[in-house]
Amino acid sequence: MSANACQETFEHSGLHKFYSAVFYAGSSFLITVVNKTVLTSFRFPSYMCLGIGQMIITLVVLYAAKMSKTVQFQDFDRSIVLKIFPLPLLYVGNHITGLASTKKLSLPMFTVLRKFTILMTMILEVYILRKTFPKRLVYSVVAIVLGAMVAASSDLAFDVEGYTFILLNDALTAASGVYTKKKLGTEDLGKYGVLFYNALIIVIPTLLASAFTGDLHKAVTFEDWVETTFIFCFLMSCFMGFVLMYSIVLCSYYNSALTTTVVGAIKNVAVAYIGIFVGGDYLFSWTNFLGLSICMSGGLVYSYLIFNQKSSGSNTEGAQELKIHITED
């Protein structure tokens, strides 16, 4: 990452950082609930087609905004693919595994296992962005992962396929966050260009894959298409998919990949405990509840350390972080 890009990060105002984080947290919470309603309550059989719907809405909204001069981003040319790689692959993998794990797991377990994204993001920032972290932050991450393991060990609704999807989703989310931050700082695409060309490059291959596997046929023949409530929830999920991706890019642009992941963890505190009482698919056990509590407590401590460091860090710490960024070239 260049020194200019780093300097741009430091010039973002505190309000931009805070509001983009709140926007991401709210979007992430809403889409989790909506996706859970579509895939579980209505038993919609195709999480892949739901992802395709979200990509199509992203393309339509951003193209209309570009044509009306509301937003601006680079016109398509052959250099776009190389500029944006590997984000499209991470994007589609993140969408599909995220939707699949939402369908397979209860809300509390989904949010607990998503905590592994924090550890994976930290590891990727160390190896890709050359960052270092204080021991207190590392210890809080260990507490988060330990709580997640305790909760998962007694999950009475254990699903091997669901756990596989969610761990893949964690890895892809972490990689997507780190590379999104890197692309925003080094490529001349802009926030909207990253979103638009991600969706444009992968929507056709995903649609063909859905048709080849029979997933598209299941979606088309789904019997609840005549239900107004289902249609509303489906369209809401598609629109929220665009909003979520925009909020992630916005939060990463004004903050960092790690901060974006931390904000997601804060959101999961609310989702996990709400899911215990709402949703009907959480099987209570004391070990599971203890693991949830350890995980959530570690997440709050971690979040406090991160935001306290950003808001009250000394000039020496800021200079050290600047140095770390510059040496990423």
From TrEMBL:
It is a multi-pass membrane protein. Residues 21-303 form the Sugar phosphate transporter domain. The keyword tRNA-binding does not apply. Pfam families: TPT (PF03151). Keywords: Membrane, Transmembrane, Transmembrane helix. Its main location: membrane. One of its GO terms (cellular component) is membrane. It comes from the Eukaryota. It is found in: Membrane. The chain crosses the membrane at residues 21-38, 44-65, 80-100, 112-130, 137-157, 163-180, 192-213, 225-246, 258-280, 286-307. This is Sugar phosphate transporter domain-containing protein.
